[in-house]
Amino acid sequence: MIIEAIDPAAYEDAIDGLGAVLVDAVDGGASVNFLAGATKADACAWWAARSASVADGTITVFVARDGERIIGSTLLERSRNPNSPHRAEIGKVIVHRSARRQGLGRALMTAAEEQARAEGRWMLVLDTVTGSPAAALYESLGWQTVGTIPAYALNTSGEPEAATYYYKDLR
């Protein structure tokens, strides 16, 4: 398994694999912005909509690969506001169901955190479904709970569920 940041020039070629991982997550019950029945075309369109932000360096996409196949992802989304050059958001931490419980989520998070730290971005934020396996992962990595918002987003079945926000100070 390889963890790497996708070069902006190679991003377009990775969209199909990223779309497949996203659909697998939704099919497995993770809402990650989608409801049940999301298609690969829907997922690829979501990733394609980030192309300009990847190209201009606002977003770095990290992937886990098994050979050429993308089996995991995470995003480092940098704040472009003048008052927050030290801040970034973590998003789309997804591992294909066939590759879970092998440390890939942890490795993807570590890669994103190391990149942020190298850039002087020491305040990271993220959100996830309250009580989810992802929440347990973030807590095991030292992320601090900010709070929970009830009925924040719909799960894949269309029912409201809570989200917990986290931060991590890398200093």
C-alpha end-to-end distance: 29 Å
Mind summarizing the main beta sheet? Answer: 7 strands, mixed
Rg is 15 Å
Poorly predicted regions are none
Provide the residue-averaged pLDDT: 97
Architecture overview:
With 171 residues, this protein is of the alpha+beta class. The chain has one domain: Aminopeptidase, CATH 3.40.630.30. Helix content is 32%, strand content 35%. It contains five helices and seven strands. It has a seven-stranded mixed beta sheet. The longest helix is centred in the N-terminal third of the chain and has 17 residues, at 11-27. The mean pLDDT is 97.
Give the SSE layout.
Layout: E1 2-5, H1 11-27, H2 40-48, H3 51-55, E2 59-66, E3 69-78, E4 87-95, H4 104-118, E5 123-129, H5 133-140, E6 144-154, E7 160-169
Parallel strand pairs: 4-5
Antiparallel strand pairs: 1-2, 2-3, 3-4, 5-7, 6-7
Helix pairs in contact: 1-2
Describe this structure in a few short sentences.
The chain has helices at 11-27, 40-48, 51-55, 104-118, 133-140, and strands at residues 2-5, 59-66, 69-78, 87-95, 123-129, 144-154, 160-169. By secondary structure, the protein is α+β, with helices and mostly antiparallel strands. The protein has a single domain, classed as Aminopeptidase (3-Layer(aba) Sandwich).
